[in-house]
């Protein structure tokens, strides 16, 4: 049984690796982006095979969504990435562009076991010489996690700041726009222009 | 290295296409080489690095690669010569740089050209210098500006020193003297490195800002472009508030003019999105007359009031302004004071000449104003008193004096300069900046005392103003700064702390000494200070706002100290705090990092501070490694998408300005309406301001587009032509293509066009090649190259022009700017045919320098939903379509030598009818699927054709009329040539007759219109007899709601709606009763309801002309209008309701013509609607439905934009209405057959339509290619 599974597992993994190659990882998505939105958005560059959002297990709430988008082939995936990185690619009214890069195998939660890879789990006795090593590793992992979380926090702070700034600017500009529209829509400006005998260029 | 005069003929004399690289192959400017001023002088400076010249010599036959050691310039010739000295002691003249290298040497080139021009035109003003430079460097994206010169200040000053001719140049002197306060330059040598280091840091920013400023030139024309404090130009920060002032934000920016500045650091400035000055923040402004601060908040106890002029921004006490305006008349003063105090607007005396009391006219130089910066006094140029002298040659003198002062550490020259300059050109746009004679010019500042007060800091400011003249003699400008704010705050803080905490004092004193010792190290000092202040902030959270801004000027020293003191005493661990403060001061820059790290470490106990510091350092490093420039470089924007105007919008269109302008516009109109003269109104709101408002609107709209369009805006704002449309184009175009031609789609989008072309051409046995360009990756790679069309060169294509067929749908850009660019580029290839989908405002190809001949054009073909937005989905996840306001045109242009041939083809295949107006008919016939026209004929009611032709005479907009008639005319050839659809002939004939005789045509048309109306009335009448009444009535209210909304947004619709609505209600009742059995009383309401639809349609047409749901009713407005304008309407008995409706319409006469216009369209749309209902296949003709849009759209554009969201919101409801209407039709007995069909087809298609259809001449075309026909679009 084990023996017979081996080649198919390899084939499966190879297929998976192919899939990874033609998949792009899209980051910084607006919460409003749904699968059809994303699919349509990237469909203009090539055929989108599948879209899967990566759930965010670690931090609750405010982290921008990310998703894996499988394209028809690896070539296309690269082109899509270059297209959306070269120009700011906005999606669904989000004021910030999305980011895209090639996916990595670790991003897939359904990835098959790498053939030939075996993981053994066992308890370590404190007297075991490996115990200290394992402990160190454990500590290191924790530290990395803490570092990552710290970094993330910093990043989010920055982003929030930026976001607020952008929102503020946008609001201010919109207010201006409304003011102008206000004076235009009740014909005040047009009437005044008439009085001045001006030709107003209200085109474009 | 003795270079002397060896211009020996060793090696090449001149080099072109050159560039310089340093020893690491990085491009670099020759200006870093030592400059040889004269032949007699040798260059003895040690060069820091090697530099190599690359380029081609001998007319490009050879390339050279030589090490160079020095450079020089020669201003004596017609054009300035720049040469570089090779290592072999050979001077090589530089001709033309390599294109990509231009940017690198731009500043030095501009500087040299500037010197050259200034030398030859010593009298030239700043403006003419810049004009000249702009001409010379016209190819540069960024126009030459002061920033380019600032870079080479040392060079210029040295040149001026050495060259007597240059020394006479007014411009250069002004540049060196006035603007950058040249006294600092005199000891340039000493501080050369520091100064240039400063500048170098800023250069990049400045160039960018410069680009921005260039774009916004017109914007700034109207507003102050100088610092409110020191009246000098440069890098300024605009206040968002109502004061409309600008300030030098950083010390560095204000250095030249000894400006107090806002005291920000560069970084702080960058971080500020919207700057609000303290005055505006606290609503306390200075009275421009008396200088005292007063509250300016209009809503609560204002003391000072702003002048109503749009660009003024000065505030006055009511008594001050009253006194100013009515000097003698005490009664008037009292009156005005009261009026102003109660909020009545006024214009301050600035806006009238002090001498002649007349207004300003910026367009006439003599009538331009010279405006005093210290009091509300203005003069026309012609009225300017002689005593107010322009800055002139005396400056030289003064300059020398000042040089001496600067160098020698301060003589005691305090004597009053009697003829001190009081007027400056070129600082204010189209105005002269003056200080009128009331103000004493303080010699050291070159301006009168600078009395800008911010709330809270009043006292300190005053003190300093007093202080300034005294201290000036003793101290160097820089040193003087030490006494002012920067050190102030530090010192005072130190002092405050002194009593209780010795530790802190220590820091402060350390700091002070440091500052004094390194007087020139300004920047660092500021930073230190910042860090220090920040650390204080961290600890003493209470002093957040004020300190936060870190505007040194605004810190209230005592309160800061107090607060600090309070906080400190409160805290128990004083020692610790002290330590921290100490610590922070030691760390200086990293201070903030550290404190925040410490703070965070509490939350994350597992991370030690060290790690966090490391991470933060990494973040910082990473952040600093990314600069805006890098990003811009990386994201190479295609040539078509030039630098966006974002920053322009952000920084120069301030809220205050907009507010002021908008208010001024209203005030001006009110004044005019109150009978004031135009001049008075203009004093409030200059015509330019009004113009500006429109410009702003456009700018803001472009900027806000993604947000105004909301969800619609995904992707890159592209729009693709629908495949069906492309197919039709291909069907027509393929006749013109010959074997072996090449089809080039210059902006291929989804890349469908070429594929379709290929398919079609292969079917017809033609073998062609294809090439498709776009900057975005399309889904389909067929012969695609990812290229910016602008970069494609004619020789890259394998085919010559006579085998090229080019074009299709370019990006439009604002005002078709991009479309024009694309076309111009395409013309370089001289293609034999150009097929274009472009907006109407695109420059026509027969107007180009190499004109093309028009084979045919079609303005209808692409109206409506011919486009879709790639990558965008609507809320139902369907591909989002785009409806256009103004339909783009479809053109076929031919190169003149091919025109005859192409026109023959067009003739042969009946393409000529593809002209304005006629195309829809043509199209539909062409496909022989839409035998709709007969419907119209059927409906025709001859009884109503009494309507006379003066209908058109009444039209206020003859253009439209002509266009319409023209359209008809162009129909006729089609009629003759078309044999495909018998059914449409009736109509066609009608049309052609119409063209031949206008009157008849009109009659017919009206007949048709009313004819439609009549049956419909019947339907309406009949409708309630069905069970739909219930439906009908409730639906009315939503309609109204919609109308209400739209009327808000779409101005034209407003006047239409309300009146007609009520009237319709009233009139329709009796009307119905007369027409119907009395048992139908309730239907009266229903009828009214349907009328409300009518007007709703009109309204929505106006305000949301993109909607297509309402065509069914268009017969009404059409008929109404016709009737109304002729007055014949009364003859139609049933139409009482309409009459009243029409009266409603009469409101705006201009509107009338629009409405009628759109009435015209109704012919089509009505019939189409039937058809749309009848035969979804006709939906393919969907674009027909949008005939109205083209015209109406133009009239209503502005509202359209705003209405988009509303439209989306209401779409479903409107749709519902549409449905009921259809249902109602269904219940009409007289029209039963047809109605049934209509009704059914809106539901899933029923069985074969049966004999009715045939009898009516409908070819049954049961395709359902679209889920939604044109009318059913809203169902999506």
Automatic annotation (TrEMBL), chain A:
<dbReference type="InterPro" id="IPR012677">
    <property type="entry name" value="Nucleotide-bd_a/b_plait_sf"/>
</dbReference>
<dbReference type="InterPro" id="IPR053316">
    <property type="entry name" value="Epigenetic_reg_gene_expr"/>
</dbReference>
<keyword id="KW-0694">RNA-binding</keyword>
<dbReference type="InterPro" id="IPR035979">
    <property type="entry name" value="RBD_domain_sf"/>
</dbReference>
<protein>
    <recommendedName>
        <fullName>RRM domain-containing protein</fullName>
    </recommendedName>
</protein>
<feature type="domain" description="RRM">
    <location>
        <begin position="22"/>
        <end position="105"/>
    </location>
</feature>
<dbReference type="Pfam" id="PF00076">
    <property type="entry name" value="RRM_1"/>
</dbReference>
<dbReference type="InterPro" id="IPR000504">
    <property type="entry name" value="RRM_dom"/>
</dbReference>
From TrEMBL, chain B:
<dbReference type="Pfam" id="PF26055">
    <property type="entry name" value="Mtase_EDM2"/>
</dbReference>
<feature type="domain" description="Zinc finger PHD-type">
    <location>
        <begin position="286"/>
        <end position="352"/>
    </location>
</feature>
<keyword id="KW-0539">Nucleus</keyword>
<protein>
    <recommendedName>
        <fullName>Zinc finger PHD-type domain-containing protein</fullName>
    </recommendedName>
</protein>
<dbReference type="InterPro" id="IPR055198">
    <property type="entry name" value="NSD_PHD"/>
</dbReference>
<dbReference type="Pfam" id="PF12047">
    <property type="entry name" value="DNMT1-RFD"/>
</dbReference>
<keyword id="KW-0862">Zinc</keyword>
<feature type="compositionally biased region" description="Acidic residues">
    <location>
        <begin position="394"/>
        <end position="403"/>
    </location>
</feature>
<dbReference type="InterPro" id="IPR058939">
    <property type="entry name" value="Mtase_EDM2"/>
</dbReference>
<feature type="region of interest" description="Disordered">
    <location>
        <begin position="1243"/>
        <end position="1276"/>
    </location>
</feature>
<feature type="domain" description="Zinc finger PHD-type">
    <location>
        <begin position="353"/>
        <end position="440"/>
    </location>
</feature>
<dbReference type="InterPro" id="IPR001965">
    <property type="entry name" value="Znf_PHD"/>
</dbReference>
<keyword id="KW-0863">Zinc-finger</keyword>
<dbReference type="InterPro" id="IPR022702">
    <property type="entry name" value="Cytosine_MeTrfase1_RFD"/>
</dbReference>
<keyword id="KW-0479">Metal-binding</keyword>
<dbReference type="Pfam" id="PF22908">
    <property type="entry name" value="PHD_NSD"/>
</dbReference>
<dbReference type="InterPro" id="IPR013083">
    <property type="entry name" value="Znf_RING/FYVE/PHD"/>
</dbReference>
<feature type="domain" description="Zinc finger PHD-type">
    <location>
        <begin position="226"/>
        <end position="281"/>
    </location>
</feature>
<feature type="region of interest" description="Disordered">
    <location>
        <begin position="393"/>
        <end position="420"/>
    </location>
</feature>
<feature type="region of interest" description="Disordered">
    <location>
        <begin position="969"/>
        <end position="1061"/>
    </location>
</feature>
<feature type="compositionally biased region" description="Basic and acidic residues">
    <location>
        <begin position="969"/>
        <end position="1015"/>
    </location>
</feature>
<feature type="compositionally biased region" description="Polar residues">
    <location>
        <begin position="1037"/>
        <end position="1050"/>
    </location>
</feature>
